[in-house]
Design brief:
- The protein is mainly beta and 358 residues long.
- The protein has 2 helices and 27 strands.
- It starts with 6 loop residues before the first strand and ends with a strand.
- The relative contact order is 0.17.
- The model has no long low-confidence stretch (mean pLDDT 95).
């Protein structure tokens, strides 16, 4: 049961360059978690989590001001859509018709285009019920936005509970067939944002197969075993232990930037990953209904924008554990489909569960 101390507050966070007001929602639960969510980009701006000694720290990268989020090229904390990850040549064929998307990653389409969901102002409201407290955000993406067909309605719900977890629930409907692949793009540093890199964090990923990349950072369409490669996290390994190994996949991506095929993912909640920071004792477990998880080690962070408290986030300052469908799925018939059709509803859930160990 949610205790009387659980609550949601809101306060102004600024105005966008075109004058729209942005609100920050602060969600507090009795378990000690405190979540801040912006209605700009459905961004997780802060997430305070206790360590093994009960001391709380903010474990996600972010910014202190709205202008930085508007300028941000790294998608810090944002919800990504319509399609997370890359689509080759910014085009796909659906029901015999070719659709041309915005090319914003060389000739390719990345994370929904130049003005994806992470740059939209969402409609938002706080809520509280007997089990949880959180924020519901909604966004209407019009037909033709960034080249996508159909009017798409998206709802994202963030909630925290006394069990010590953050749940992210996605729902979407459309009036025309369209690709939809949503994810949450928070960069985690369990030692605290600005505390350095995450190379000493120990990671476990429940996956024996991944989607190898070509030189364009796009999937080849094959599925490859992780066994015998630096991408084998079936047993815990420090993120930094093999990140500079002489491996073609790591060289092409500049580190980890790969989608793992999750074991046992069949619509129900499956374990995706476990992240542990030995210094603080914080543990993050990721569970999801999605078939894949993108592991991104923050390879392209360059400190160009000051983060929270003036911190400069360099490479590997945080790690993303992005539950999603596979990259370039509209062009890969062997991958699980991301096509949503009228009359159907996309429903997806991911949980980030926090705990500590000695």
């Amino acid at each position: 049961m949610t205790t009387p101390s659980a609550h949601t507050r809101q306060h102004p966070f600024g105005r966008t360059a075109d004058g729209r007001e942005v609100t920050c929602f602060t969600v507090q639960a009795a378990a000690g978690l405190r979540l801040e969510v912006l209605d700009y980009g459905a961004v997780v701006r802060a997430l305070r989590v206790p360590d093994r000694d009960g001391e709380a720290a903010d474990v996600v990268l972010g910014y202190d001001d709205l202008e930085s989020y508007e300028r941000d090229p790294f998608y810090l904390g944002a919800v990504i859509g319509r399609s997370a990850n890359r689509i080759r040549d910014a085009a796909f064929v659906l029901d015999g018709k070719t659709y041309q998307l915005t090319a914003n990653d060389g000739p390719h389409h990345l994370h929904g285009g130049a003005r994806g969901f992470g740059k939209a102002v969402w409609r938002a409201r706080g809520f509280r019920d007997a089990r949880r407290v959180g924020v519901v955000l909604e966004h209407a993406s019009p037909h033709g936005e960034e080249g996508y067909p159909g009017n798409l309605h998206v709802q994202v719900t963030y909630s925290i509970s006394d069990a010590g977890g953050l749940a992210v629930e996605y729902r979407a409907t459309t009036d025309h067939p369209t690709p939809v692949n949503l994810t949450q793009h928070s960069y985690f540093n369990l030692a605290g944002e600005g505390a350095g890199d995450v190379l000493a964090h120990e990671l476990t990923v429940d996956a024996g197969v991944f989607t190898p990349l070509d030189a364009s950072h796009l999937p080849t369409g094959a599925l490859a075993p992780v066994a015998g490669t630096p991408l084998d996290f079936r047993r815990p390994h420090r993120i930094g232990a093999r990140i500079r190994a002489h491996d073609a996949q790591l060289r092409m991506a500049g580190g980890y930037d790969h989608t793992f095929v999750l074991e046992g993912a069949s619509g129900g909640m499956a374990c995706a990953a476990r992240l542990f920071d030995p210094a603080s004792g914080r543990v993050l477990e990721v569970l999801t209904t999605e078939p894949g998880m993108q592991l991104y080690s923050g390879n392209f962070l360059d400190g160009s924008l000051p983060g929270k408290h003036g911190h400069r986030y360099g490479p590997c300052a945080g790690v993303c554990l992005e539950t999603q469908h596979f990259p370039d799925a509209p062009n890969q018939p062997g991958f699980p489909s991301t096509i949503l059709r009228p009359g159907d509803e996309l429903r997806s859930r991911t949980e980030f569960r926090f705990s500590t160990q000695p």
